[in-house]
Write a structure and sequence with these properties.
about 130 residues, alpha+beta, three-stranded antiparallel beta sheet, about 20% helix
Length: about 130
């Protein structure tokens, strides 16, 4: 499925479905919208994952920062959510997602001047969590 890029916060797929989070090229994979660059689920998919009872497995600290979370259960079983996509959100949306991630993982994310920062109990911290 091909996606087109719109320079607002909306992407329209060939089938007419819209993804309203971010400027990345989102593609459909079954029922999910995935980033065509990093294969992350779209932020809206993460929200639906939590609503369906899914959990975040511990973050990946491969690069010294919690740059992605693994998802289990819910609607995004065995998918990944890359933190870079928090930049795609409005301030209100960012606050909702940052709070969800904090409640589930004990890691706090902040956004300032277009950059994402975090605070964790210690580097490499892991906690499996559900809301």
């Amino acid at each position: 499925m091909k996606a087109s890029r719109i320079h607002s916060s909306e992407t329209v797929n060939e089938d007419g479905t819209k993804v309203t989070h971010g400027l990345n090229m989102w593609r459909r994979a079954g029922e999910l919208h995935l980033c065509s660059i990093c294969n992350s689920v779209a932020p809206i998919e993460l929200l639906e994952h939590f609503v369906a009872g899914g959990i975040l497995l511990g973050p990946d600290w491969q690069y010294g920062v919690p740059h992605k979370f693994y998802l289990e259960g819910g609607t995004c079983n065995q998918q990944e959510f890359f933190i870079q996509h928090l930049r795609d959100l409005s301030d209100d949306e960012f606050n909702v997602f940052a709070n969800l991630i904090h409640e589930s993982s004990d890691i706090v994310f902040i956004r300032r001047d277009g950059h994402i920062g975090y605070s964790a109990p210690f580097q490499g911290y892991q906690r499996i969590g559900a809301l």
